[in-house]
Amino acid sequence: MKLLLLACHTNDGRRNVPTGNVPAAVQLDRAGEPHALQAAVTYLTETGGPLTLEQVRRQPMMPVEADQIDFGHTDRVHWLRFSISNGVAAQQPVWVLRVMSLSSTVCDLYLVDPTGRVRQWPAGIRFSFAQRPFDALTFDFPLRLTDPRPYTAYLRLAGVNSQQYTLDLLPLPVAHRYAREFETIMALYFGAMLAMLIYNAFLFVSVRDRGYLLYTVYLLAMTATHLCMYGLGFKWLWPDNPDWAVRAQNVFTGLTIATAAAFANHFLAIPQRLPRLQWVLYSFIVVGLGISGLALLANSAQITQFVALSVVPVILVTWVAALLIWRRGYAPALFYVLGWLVLFVTIGLFSLKNLGIWAGATFVNFLMPIGTATEMLLFSFGLGYRINLSRREQAQLQQQRAEAEMRALRAQMNPHFVFNCLNTLDYYILSQQPDRASDFLQRFSQLIRNVLEQSRHESILLADELATLRLYIELEQERSRSRFTYQLDCDPTLSHVPIAPMLIQPFVENAILHGLRHKTDGTGQLTITCRHEAPHLLITIADNGIGRTAAAALHQPPTTNRRESLGMTVTAERLAALGAYLTVADGAPGTLVTLTIKLS
């Protein structure tokens, strides 16, 4: 994401105008401390072909009028010159010239000592790390400055990416320490990125959600881009392929643009929430893939500049879209907003230090990887939150669907049950049993009122559920001419436990219809028990009927079978939505059903 900063620097070096002043030599007067060289640098741009060192030494140079040496996006060759006087040669004879530029194709140093002798160190990413003067990600040159008189150094620089340079002279122990710190931070950063990459790839394989796939590809492209940006790709992965080292950053940056847009489109659900914006994101995907294709075919400063300028609208558009979607109530978008916000802040602080506006502490040099890792971590959390939210919504929809189907099932069941009850009532009336008819009618009307009232609630007290169930069993018992007896055995301490309405009734109905009604000798027994086994409520429905195998062998009307099968399917879905489960076992004789409900 350093391209955000580079996009702001597009000059070709012509902004610097010669002033006629030649900067004084840098005085190395503090042993053990780094010295910045920007203020002592003059420069020359090759315009008519390659120049030799002797030609450069005879030509006037222009001073750099800024703390940052910045020639923008250009493939021109630049020469830098500065002088050094080592006033602490006795205490600190060896210094390291560090050129902070990871993508220079040419970075050659010529050092002219006080006697006029010239030493040369060729460097740049056209050389492998084994050929560099100093094994570091930056271009480091070990200088032995034993003479207190001035040395003159010439740097020949070229590249096709943004040409920004920072020059420092470091004592050798400090240079080693900085190199270790830098590589340690990079190892931690890329280790964290690799861990997130593996973890999210595993999640994709496990849950098969396309969001994890897009995020994994985006994370892979971003990691590859930073491997190139910090020089680690060249050092670790393709040390003998400098041409690819030059192209790779633009190739992977283009892929990062495309995958970032694709991930944002899916993560923020742009087609559903901001449908007009999805075509903008599709165009970003096309642009990113086009950049990668062009970078594979050729490499130039113009491609790099276009890459840098393309990053900005992708980030701004997706960030504003995330902000709007979050304001409209989509909670996971907050992680996207915070992720880019953290990166904006780290880019801003890094830019202030890079431009010399703010000195900052040493850790500011590592704000880019810190910000990127934090952003990716927030995106990962957001993706997990989004998946969990989607699952909760699906569970709620499943529960609502199960409730709706249960209400529809009751509408089918109640007419059948009402018809049978009315037949029983008609029988009492015709047989001139007014007392029994009145008692039956009162219990039947109470059952209807209970069912209608309880069906309006998501949960009721267990005591109310058992009271309704008792009425249902007694009416069925009376309709069957007392072919079975029943027993309700419930711990009184469980009376106020909440339970979904009509959850037990389908299993009681099955026990009566398939098991007990076929026992004509009056020995049928139905037993319902409720007990507490923390953290669960266990409800068992046991009957001594003919059993499941014998009941299945009997002929049942197709419509009845379909209704009962639907009833059990809906009940199973309701149990799953409530986090409960059931077990069905054969008794001796009969059937035993156990409902296990987790208590909140």
- Assign an overall shape: rod-shaped
The helical percent reads 40-55%
Give the N-terminus to C-terminus distance in angstroms. 47 Å
Portion in beta strands? 15-25%
The class by helix and strand makeup works out as: alpha+beta
Count of separate DSSP helical elements: 16
Work out the radius of gyration: 40 Å
What average pLDDT do the residues reach?
Answer: 83
Care to count the β-strands?
A: 20
Low-pLDDT residue intervals, each spanning 5 or more residues: 1-20
Give a quick set of tags describing it.
single chain, five-stranded mixed sheet, disordered N terminus, seven-stranded mixed sheet, 600 residues, alpha+beta, 16 helices
